[in-house]
Amino acid sequence: MKLEVTIDGRTFEVDLVDPSPGAEARVVVDGEERVAAVESASPDEVIVRVDGRRFRFAVEPHPGGEQAADGTPVRLLHRNRCFDVRVASEIDRLRARAPGRTTASGPVTIHSALPGVVRQIFLEPGSDVDEGAPILTLEAMKMENEIRAEIAGRIESIHVQPGQVVAAREPLATIVPG
Description:
Elements: E1 2-7, E2 10-16, E3 25-29, E4 32-41, E5 45-50, E6 53-60, E7 74-78, E8 81-89, H1 90-97, E9 108-111, E10 116-121, E11 128-129, E12 134-140, E13 143-148, E14 153-158, E15 165-166, E16 171-177
Antiparallel strand pairs: 1-2, 1-8, 2-3, 3-4, 4-5, 5-6, 6-7, 7-8, 9-16, 10-12, 10-15, 11-14, 12-13, 14-16
């Protein structure tokens, strides 16, 4: 899985060779292979190990009081230095380049961008949902990501259950516009 990580305006291509949740991952950064793992993550702190070296980052609260799962930059603090970080998957980059959707004409299925574990489901089939509202939480590489509605409408179906392991591109929920 390829990710694009931007740190303070400098962009790196990261190729996750083994993106198993909770496991060490071999990553290729600018052509150089490294071993990395997220040791722990919370809304206040992230501890990352890269090639055996441990890095502790304080997480500055996201404007609005929550961590962004939509590619919005996050500010990390390490040894009195601030880093604005943005992580984008291939799917995120494709969505950013796609022309804006004027009106959805049929059901829209939301797929997982990363392999992970479904931790919590906020809505059930038949629920009305606004665009951008959280539908479920997916834990990927020890980070919890809110999966949000791409359109306003009604939840037609939820394709997963709490505790279920999902692969990248696996369907999570379907929304009927309305």
